[in-house]
Design goal:
There is one protein chain. By secondary structure, the protein is mainly α. It has a domain at 1-182: Alpha Horseshoe (Serine Threonine Protein Phosphatase 5, Tetratricopeptide repeat). It has 25 helices and 2 strands. Helix 7 (139-151) packs antiparallel against helix 8 (155-168) and helix 17 runs antiparallel to helix 18 (340-361). It is globular.
């Protein structure tokens, strides 16, 4: 499960035909429902969301909207923990349809999330600031603002917003949990602070298994893999049905080179995973072959997985997300390893899935976002084939497709693609300029910046970045592809 789940984090005290209740100076965003059953499911769903248990939260918010189909906030939170673009879009539409019956705070939150699909992050930020101005004593309003700042890579502002939530409600576990995630994953990273805030969250909710595997992530990030494994195993004892802890054990064994053990860990996690998570867990198992240097097997298994998704016990709207994840990973492997004919086939299949997503959402804005992604992958393939004229044309197409977005990060993929083109042309200085404007929170991109710096004879900075990448220790397909080389180059 992604730590970027903070995007929509903002729930509130329930009211049932009465004024909102305030405790200890907290004045939360009022959330309106007239169903006791819906209220109870919402409260339980919010608790699951706070601890990062998206599958459980999804089921509980579904129960809430079944009990009260006009429960705008429950629809909104269901969108937040959705397992597909279709579910996100349909739940958000239902939240908007119900918003006229809801509070002003709910309506603002719906508008914040609506801006996600059209990539309008500037508008998201303005709306989130309106929300905290309206509810300055609402901890979850501040967490919502933190989530928007996170999407903009404004990590200093994000942490200040989370600190405000902690100040307002020291017993709200979601706040120190979010702060710990920020220090663990976002620049500047601070593992001591991450551990401090995870332990603060554990003090509030000492029985939550998710918090223990999160603490294990701190030890993994500091390369104390045996200690990380101990906390993951503790999480599995707290909840034997916690597939995520087993997934993380698989990551550790992958990094240690224990590939058979890693695959066994993944298999155990897959066996108990919720159906919506199962194909994603299976993709991580395929990364073991990447770590082991067998890219061809990884691609073959990921493509096979994408085809098998149609036979799995999934809702129809969840299939496209699972296919897109498997095919995106396969495409990245093919491109990095120069498997250009395979990349052509995989990217063609991926394009079909992304266009299907666009059709399901049904907006011009989202369709352009999907087409921009397709142009990005097709541009990489053209560059790897040495057709730089076509690659440049596709980079231009990508930039034109995102040009209308009110999103300061909209050009990151364009700069990433331009960096690749210049790097392959051995124009290393220009490649460095472009990669510096790409998404450098992505270690795969950061690795390529280091390669360009090395080519430009900026050896000291390149070596420093190679070491940062080598020590990252969080599993993605890009990281699986470059980890060993980064370690070798870091010395």
């Amino acid at each position: 499960m992604s730590t970027r789940v903070l995007r929509g984090l903002a729930a509130a005290t329930l009211i049932i035909g009465c004024d909102p209740i305030a405790w200890s100076g907290i004045d939360e965003i009022p959330v309106t429902t007239h169903s006791e059953d819906a209220r109870l499911n919402f409260i339980a769903g919010q608790a699951a969301l706070d601890r990062g248990d998206a599958p459980e939260a999804n089921a509980l918010f579904r129960a809430a909207v079944a009990a009260d189909p006009d429960f705008s906030y429950a629809w909104l939170n269901l969108a937040t923990v959705s397992f597909s673009t279709e579910e996100f879009n349909s739940s958000l539409k239902r939240a908007a349809e119900s918003a006229p019956k809801a509070s002003e705070g709910e309506r603002l939150l719906v508008e914040v999330n609506q801006r996600f699909l059209d990539g309008n992050l500037d508008s998201q930020l303005a709306l989130a600031k309106q929300l905290v101005a309206k509810y300055p004593k609402a901890p979850r309003a501040w967490l919502n603002l933190a989530g928007v700042e996170f999407g903009l890579n404004h990590f200093t502002e994000q942490r200040a917003d989370i600190a405000k939530a902690i100040e307002l409600d020291p017993a709200l576990m979601a706040a120190p949990f979010a702060m710990a995630n920020s220090y663990l994953f976002n620049d500047p990273r601070d593992f001591a602070q991450a551990e401090k805030f995870y332990r603060q969250a554990i003090a509030i909710a000492p029985g939550e298994d998710n918090l223990y595997w999160a603490l294990g992530d701190v030890y993994r990030g500091t390369n104390r893999l045996d200690e990380a494994r101990r906390y993951y195993e503790l999480a599995t004892r707290l909840d034997p049905h916690d597939g995520t802890a087993l997934l993380k054990l698989g990551h550790v064994n992958s990094f240690l080179g224990n590939y058979d053990e890693a695959r066994a860990d993944y298999d155990r996690g897959i066996a108990i995973a919720e159906s919506a998570n199962r194909p994603f867990f299976m993709s991580y198992k395929m990364f073991t072959w990447v770590h082991a240097g067998d890219a061809a097997t990884a691609v073959r298994e990921l493509e096979k997985l994408a085809m098998e998704v149609d036979t799995m016990d999934l809702q129809d709207d969840q299939r496209s997300g699972a296919k897109a994840f498997a095919l995106t990973n396969a495409a990245t492997i093919c491109l990095e390893k120069g498997m250009n004919d395979d990349a052509d086939r995989v990217i063609g299949n991926l394009a079909g899935v992304l266009r299907g997503n666009a059709q399901a959402v049904g907006t011009d804005e989202f369709s352009r976002i999907q087409e921009a992604q397709i142009a990005y992958y097709e541009g990489q393939l053209a560059a790897h084939r040495g057709d730089y004229k076509l690659a440049l044309a596709l980079a231009k197409k990508n930039s034109e497709l995102v040009a209308g977005q009110q999103n300061p990060r909209k050009m990151e993929s364009y700069h990433d693609l331009m960096g690749l083109i210049y790097f392959l042309e051995r124009k290393y200085g220009k490649a460095v300029e472009e990669y510096r404007q790409a998404d450098l929170t992505n270690m795969y991109n950061k690795y390529h910046l280091a390669l360009a710096l090395d080519g430009a004879k900026q050896k000291d900075e390149a070596r420093r970045i190679f070491k940062e990448v080598a020590d990252w220790n969080f599993n993605t397909v890009g990281y699986a592809l470059v980890r060993k080389d980064a370690q070798a180059r870091a010395g």
